[in-house]
Design a protein that fits this description.
Number of strands: 11
Helix content: under 10%
Oligomer: single chain
Strand content: over 45%
Structural class: mainly beta
Length: 128
C-alpha cells in the first residue's frame, strides 16, 4: 500500500507564503502513478482541485491559484511540492496530496480520484 505523507502546513498571515511537501512511501514509478497533485478542502465545502503535475513535469492549475501557487516534483525522491505565495484567508483549508495513473475527468469528479492514492492532509490557516 502506497502512503503519501504531507507536511509543511501551518498558520501564516495573509500575504505570506508556505511550501507544502508530499512524500511517497515507495517509488511512484513502481506503481505507475504518473500524475501527482494537490487538493484542498475547507469546512463544509467539497474537496477542490488545486494543481497537478505529470511524470514529465507538465502542470495544470485551478484558476483560483494560478500565478500564486507553483507545483513541482522531484522524481529522484518521489516528492512533490506546492509553493504557495500571496496567501489569502480563503486559502485556509486542509490540503491533500493525491496520486493517479492518468490525468482526466476523475480529477474533477465528486469525490475526486476514486481509484487514486491520498495522503492524510496538512492544515493551512491564513489569518487576515
Amino acid at each position: 500500500q502506497v502512503r503519501l505523507v504531507e507536511s509543511g502546513g501551518g498558520l501564516v498571515q495573509a500575504g505570506g507564503s508556505l511550501k507544502l511537501s508530499c512524500a511517497a512511501s515507495e517509488s511512484i514509478f513502481s506503481i505507475n502513478m504518473g500524475w501527482l497533485g494537490w487538493y484542498r478542502q475547507a469546512p463544509g465545502k467539497q474537496r477542490e482541485f488545486i494543481a497537478a503535475t505529470s511524470r514529465g513535469s507538465s502542470t495544470t492549475y485551478a484558476d483560483s491559484v494560478k500565478g500564486r501557487f507553483t507545483i513541482s516534483r522531484d522524481n529522484a525522491i518521489d516528492t512533490i511540492y506546492l509553493q504557495m505565495n500571496s496567501l489569502k484567508p480563503e486559502d485556509s483549508a486542509v490540503y491533500y496530496c493525491a496520486a493517479s495513473a492518468t490525468w482526466g475527468t476523475s480529477w474533477y469528479a465528486n469525490p475526486p480520484l476514486p481509484s487514486g492514492y491520498w495522503g492524510q492532509g496538512t492544515r493551512v490557516t491564513v489569518s487576515s
